[in-house]
Amino acid sequence: MTSPAGPGARGDVRRTELAAFLRARRAGLRPHDVGLPDAARRRTPGLRRQEVAQLAGISVDYYVRLEQGRGSHPSRQVLSALTRALVLTRDEREYLFRIAGESPPRVEGPSREVAPAVRWLLDGLTATPAYVVDAKYDVLAWNGLATLFIGDLSTVPAPDRNMIRWMFRRPPGDPHWSDEDQLRFSRSTIADLRAAYARYLGDRGIEELVTELVATSPRFAEMWAEQNVEARRRIVKRVEHPAAGPLEFECQVLHVPDGDQRVIVYCAEPGSPTHRTFVRLAGELAAGGVVAVSS
Question: Where are the domains of the chain?
Answer without folding.
Answer: 7-99, 116-286
